[in-house]
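Final report, closing paragraph on structural work. Over the funding period we assembled a curated collection of sequence-structure pairs, and we close with a single example.
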Amino acid sequence: MLEKNVESFIGCDSEYDEAEIVIFGAPFDSTTSYRPGARFGSSSIRHESYGIETYSPYQNADLLDCKVFDSGDLELCFGDAGMALSDIEKRADIILNDGKLPVMLGGEHLVTLAAVRSALKKYPDIHIMHFDAHADLRDDYLGAKLSHACVMRRCFELVGNGKIHQFCIRSGDRDEFVFADSHTDMHRFSFDGLEELVSDLMKNKTPVYFTVDLDCLDPSCFPGTGTPEAGGVTFSELLSAILLVCGTNIVACDINELAPMLDPSGISTALACKTVRELIIAAAKNNKKWSDE
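Its predicted structure, as stored:
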């Protein structure tokens, strides 16, 4: 049983027992390779969510109609990635074992590894849907195996060939792209091929872990991130892709890599809030569909 957070994401104030979706924050960025600050992303999203509406005109649906509980941010050890990942995995275990959908707010992208470890215990045939500017497939980064630059490589070691589907990828070293050609389903630069993939995943009722690194967006609309990469997608393209993926059997998901202080205008945080709202509403609608089947 988790306790309610003092400040919740707007509209997400159901009691834990009745909730179908549980939000939790993973404020960790100790392996960030360029500009730190993602540890403040989850709390900033929660606080600034009151600048948006609970109603989505895109989906003609409202967060107030969803049963969502916000358990707040974990208190993580910033100096030890292994300890932080262990604590995140334990929180995800509680949520999944109680039959609820975990929605994690990062944090740097390494936090995804812990949630995937948790989901894999319950769904051994899980696939990972990965939106990102970066391949994140390095075997190590400056000698470290636990790095946000290596998170998908560590996830690959858990799920195996052909189960990681990567979109919008436009950055990485040569070895990462060579590795992807043999081991992952990488779609460079855009969401081309997503519709066909979603159709296959739905047909087979495949359990999906959905991770959104917000730096898949172009820095012109989302500059508040640690490693911005030119040539990204627009918010409208990302939203359409999220709504498409949420038609699959999503069993856990996350949104990460907002570093709010890197965009003093607040536009990046506002965009992140809207993205979280749309993801939760879409996941709630489709979570009911899959649970009824």
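Residues 267-292 form the longest helix (26 residues). The mean pLDDT is 95. We thank the funder for supporting this effort.
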